[in-house]
Every structure is written in structure tokens, then in C-alpha cells.
Write a structure and sequence with these properties.
The chain has helices spanning about 80, 95-100; strands at about 20, 35-40, 45, 60-65, 65-70. The protein has one domain (about 5-105). The longest helix is centred in the C-terminal third of the chain and has 9 residues, at about 95-100. Strand 2 (about 35-40) and strand 3 form a beta hairpin. It is an alpha+beta fold and about 120 residues long. It has two helices and five strands; from the N terminus they run βββββαα. Pfam families: CxxCxxCC (PF03692).
Length: about 120
């Protein structure tokens, strides 16, 4: 089974990705590349491209609903780590569902997480 996020990308092209600026500061343990962000206010930055009317994260390499990858996945912002795919951990994710529906994709179901087909007796 392939992880559903690898063929989605909807959340990265639907929401503003904002977080504390310290996540871009290596001296403070930050890992997000600062050049991929823009300042929102004294405390927050956003991933470039996500503050527009039609958000799309600059780190997103995707054809929504077909293939998707985050170019900075190992060092992505904390807010990206906090949005699970629906049913990945046994519960729906309103954010995942909202983004998928906005891009014309069906909401994920528990069946999307079946790892292997049942073994025939």
C-alpha cells in the first residue's frame, strides 16, 4: 500500500502554512529553510505561496490527486507534522477532508488504510 498522501497534496495547496519564526533559525534548533518563508508578523512566518488566494506551498512538488511530495519533508514545519491524513491513526481529520474535498478528491476512509488484502483460506 502506498501512503495516500503520496498521491494527494491537497493540504499543501489549500491552507496557509504559518508557524513561529524560530523554526527557521538554526541557532534555536529550527530546520525550515528561511528563504522558503515570508514574514507574517513579529512572531510568525508562512511558507511561501500559502498566503495567496489560491495557496500552494513552494515546497510542494505535485499534481494534486496524482502524485505528491514535499521537497523539504525531513525538515518541514511543525504545523505540517500536526495534520494527519484522515483515518491514518484511526480517526477522521477535518483538515485533510476539507482540503481533499476542495480539490475534488473524496475524503479518505478506513478502507484506504488496509495494508494487505485478506488472506484466502
Amino acid at each position: 500500500m502506498r501512503h495516500p498522501c503520496l498521491t494527494c497534496g491537497a493540504c499543501c495547496a489549500h491552507f496557509r502554512v504559518s508557524f513561529h519564526w524560530s523554526e527557521t533559525e538554526p541557532a534555536l534548533g529550527g530546520t525550515v529553510p528561511a528563504h522558503l518563508t515570508e514574514k507574517l508578523d513579529a512572531h510568525r512566518v508562512a511558507m511561501r505561496g500559502t498566503s495567496s488566494k489560491t495557496p500552494r506551498c513552494t515546497a510542494l512538488d505535485a499534481e494534486i490527486g496524482v502524485r505528491s511530495r514535499c521537497a523539504i519533508h525531513p525538515v518541514k514545519p511543525s504545523v505540517c507534522r500536526e495534520v494527519p491524513a484522515s483515518w491514518e491513526f484511526g480517526a477522521p481529520s477535518p483538515q485533510c477532508d476539507k482540503a481533499r474535498l476542495a480539490h475534488g478528491l473524496p475524503a479518505l476512509t478506513p478502507a484506504d488504510w488496509d495494508l494487505e488484502p485478506p488472506i484466502a483460506a
